[in-house]
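Encode chain A's predicted structure.
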Amino acid sequence: MELIERLLPQWQFSEQHALVLDGVTPAHAYASILPGLSTQDPLINQAIALREVPGRFLRALGLSRNALPSQPFGFHSFTLLGQVPNAEVAFGLAGRFWQLDYGLCPVANAEEFAAMIDQPRLVLNVCVEPLGDHSCHLLTHTRVHCPDEAQRRRFAPYWFAIRPVSGLIRQRLLRRIAQLARATSP
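Encoded structure for chain A:
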């Protein structure tokens, strides 16, 4: 968890999920992270579409042209912030996530992410921790830092509303990574 600690050492909101992978080497688990995260999942797509319903409704009524992002939210919305080979991969977002269009600010890299001290920032990482020669712990952590009290108050109701679905998404991501890792393990 060295990257997430460096990228977002302070936060107000967090969640963590984990799986034990028996019969899978840490190297195979790590090699499955990026392919597992980038694979489409119909349930995740439906959850995101449901989150975007209010924006679609407002746009259909002509009440807002900015109620939706230019493309549906997805894994492509995150920026790769760093990797520790065979141990951790970290991704980030910055913006006002509670807005109908997610209020995302473009993030080019980890340095730009760190400089965005006036925006809420989110780090999602996936870690692999060895448990033995042929088993490992696969974990995901999500942390959110809001730079001031007003933004924290705006984010908090959104966090508590989306957290159950967010947790389900993280668990599905871990299971997909585990499935790929098991399929490629000797």
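The chain has one domain: 2-39+74-184.
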